[in-house]
Amino acid sequence: MEPIAKKWYDNLGQGKIMGTKCLDCGAFTFPPLTVCRKCNSRNVQWQEISGKGTLIMYSSTILPAKKFTKYAPIPYGIVKLEEGPCFFTKIEGADVSSTEAIIKGNEQLPVEVKAEIQKVEGVNIVAFRK
Ligand SMILES: [Zn+2]
Q: pTM for the full model?
C-alpha cells in the first residue's frame, strides 16, 4: 500500500478523517494528496476535517462493487465539505426506496450533513449522515 493510503486508513482507524492543507495558497485537498489540488505545491500538511458538509445531490447504486452487493441499494451523493472540496460517497439517511423518493429527496437539497467513519466489510470508509 502506498504511504499516503496507509496513513489515510491508519488515521481512520483512530477516528480521524484527514485532508491536506496547502501551506502556500491555503487550499484544502480531500481526500489527502501529497500535492495541492490548486497550485500543485508539495508544501502541504495533514489536517483533520471539521466533518461538516452540504449534500449537493444524491442517487443510489443498485449494482455496487461485488463485495458490497448485499447492501444495495446504497445511497451515494456529492458532499461539499466546509473546507471547500467536493467528495462523492455514501450518504446515510437519504431515502432511496424508489425513484420518486430520490427525486423528492433531491428537491429538498442542499442540506447539512455530518461525516462519520463506518466499518464496512472490514474496511473503514468515510460516509456522511443526513
Ligand atoms: Zn496550494
A: 0.91
